[in-house]
Amino acid sequence: MPEYTDHARKQMRRRKVPDEAVDWVLEHYHTRRPAPRREGALPTEIYVGAYSERNLKVYVERDTNPMLVTTVVWAGD
Questions:
Q1: Residue 22 exposed, middle or buried by CB count within 10 Å (0-12, 13-18, 19+)
Q2: Which value, to the nearest 10 degrees, does the dihedral of the CA atoms of residues 34, 35, 40, 42 take?
Q3: Hey, how many other C-beta atoms are within 10 angstroms of the C-beta on 18?
């Protein structure tokens, strides 16, 4: 089970992303890539997977165990 930053939880509520969607994507992603670097931010990877016929992008801080989800966004939003 991943852990979530406060920002990730806020975005999940705002974007109506259930925990199950994040779990699904982290287990069944079809694409994984480094996120663009932001000044002052730790390295992050993006996991992309289909959930309920939509692609969900889950941003995870690199080298965290358990995984630390920093934000989520529906692809195309």
A1: buried
A2: -50
A3: 11
- In eight-state DSSP terms, residue 62 is T
**Tens of pLDDT along 36-74?**
988 888 899 999 999 999 999 999 999 999 999 999 999
How many CA atoms lie within 13 Å of 32's alpha carbon, on the beta-carbon side? 10
Contacts of 34 (CB under 8 A, 6+ apart): 43, 44, 45, 46, 62
Q: Which CATH number fits domain 3-74: 3.30.70, 3.30.2310, 3.40.1440, 3.40.30?
A: 3.30.2310
